[in-house]
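re: that chain from earlier
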Amino acid sequence: MPASPRLLVSMLPAALALALGGCAAGPDFAVPPAPDGDTYTAGTQPRRTGAADAPDGQAQELVAGADVPAQWWTLFRSPALERAIRAALEASPTLAQARARLEQARQDLSAGTGALLLPRVDARLNATREQVDLATVGITAFPSPGPFTLYGASVEVSYTLDLFGGARRELEGLRAAVDYQRFELEAARLALAGNVATAAIREAGLRAQIADTEAIVQAGEQQLAITQQRYQAGGVAAVDVQRQRGELAQSQALLPGLVQQLAATRHQLAVYAGQPPASAGLPEFRLEDLTLPDTLPLALPSALAQRRPDIRAAEALLHQASANIGVATAQLYPQLTLSGSAGTQAMSTRDLFDSFNVWSLAAGIVQPVFRGGELMARKRSAEAAYEQSLAAYRQAVLTGLREVADTLRALEADAGTLQARADSARQAGATLAVVREQYRLGGASQLAVLDAERRDRQARLALAQARASRFADSAALLQALGGGWWQEREAAAPQATGGGLASAAQERP
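^ sequence. v structure.
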C-alpha cells in the first residue's frame, strides 16, 4: 500500500483517541439527593398493627429497613395466587410490549454507537463504458480508439471528531433511554403482579360476600313466609308484611351486583394472564386459602427512590434530559471532519486490485456563525426540558412516599376495623344463640330467630370485607415499596456478560 493510504489509516486511531479523550460539553449528570428522614407519616409511624380476635386477626410487624422479597406474593402462602401471577408474568401482552420497547431502545443504542463513535468506511466498485473522440481535442493524426470499459475500486473513510463531546452526550442519552425502558419493564412487572394479587383478593372477598348475602336472602325469604302466615292469621298488620318484603328486596338487590363484580374480576384476571375470558383456566380464590403475612418489610424513605422502578424510570428520563443539554451545547462549537479515499482504476478486472493509484485526504471544519438564534434556543429548550424532567422526578418521589404513607395508615386502620367487625359478629352470634334458646323454650318466635340469623349474616358479611381489606392493603404496601425486582437482577448479575459502550448504567442497590 502506498504511503498516503497508510497515513490515512494510521491517522484514524489517533483521531478517535483525541475525540474520546476530550471534554464533553454540558453538565455531568448527578442523581438528585435521596429523601431525608426515616419515616413516611407525620406523627408516630406504626411499627406494629393491632391484633383482632378474628380470622386473619394477628398483629403484623413492620420491619424497618428490611428488603421486600423478589417474589413478594409468596408471603401470602397461596399456591393458586403464585400460579396466577407466574402465568401472568409469562403471557401478559403488556409485558411483551414493554420487552419489545426495551429491545428497540437497545438496538437504537447499538446503532447510535456505530454511527456516532466509530469511523464510517465504505467500499465502492464501479464500471464505466466510455468512448473517446480524439478529433474533439484536435488530434487527427491518430484514429480514435473504440469504446472501452473502465473499472474502479475504492475505499472511502470519514470520521467526525467528537472534540466537544456532542456524540458522547448523545450516546449517554441513548443509554439513559435504555435504562428508562428497562425500569418501565420492571414497573410493568410490579404493577401486573400487584394487580393480579389485588384482583385475587377481591375475588376471594366477593365470594365470601356472595355466600353471606345468599344466606341473608334465604333467611329473609323464610322470615317473609312466616310473616305472611301470621298476617293471614291476624297476628300482624299488613305493613309488617310490606316491610319484610322491602328488606328482602334490598338483600336480593345486592346479589346481581356482587355476581357481576365477581365475573368482571375473573375477566380481568384472564386478561392479566394473557387469556380470553371465555376460556381462561384460572383457579378460584377464597379468603380461607390466603395467609396474612405476620411481618411486612418497610424500606427506608432514602431507599425508596432507588428501588421503585417508576422513580428509577423518572431518573433515567432526567439523565437523558441532562445529556441532551450537552448535545445542544456541542452544536455551538466547531465540528472537524476527516475523510479520505484510496482506490484504483483499470481497464480490466484482473488489474483492478494490483495497486492504489488514486487517493485523497481531506479535513473540513464547520463553525456555526449565524443561525438566527436557533442553536442557543435549542440549548435553552434542552435546559427547560431538564427542569421539567427534574420536577417530574420529584413528583414521582413524592407520590411514592405518599402511597407508602397511605398504606401504612390503612393497615393501622384495618386492624381496628377488623376488631370492631369481629366484636359485632360475636355480639350478633351471641344474640342469635340466645334467641334460639328462647325459641326452644317457647319464649321467642321463629320470626325472631330468622331476624337474628339475618343480623348475624350481615355481621359476618362486614367481617369478610374487613378481612379482604387487610389482605389488599398488605399487598398494596409491598407494591408501593417497589417489590423486590432488584434482588432478581442482583442474582442474575454474576451470569451477565459484556458491558462496553452498549451496556446499561450500573445498578445501585
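The domain at 64-120+165-329+376-490 is CATH 1.20.1600.10 (Outer membrane efflux proteins (OEP)).
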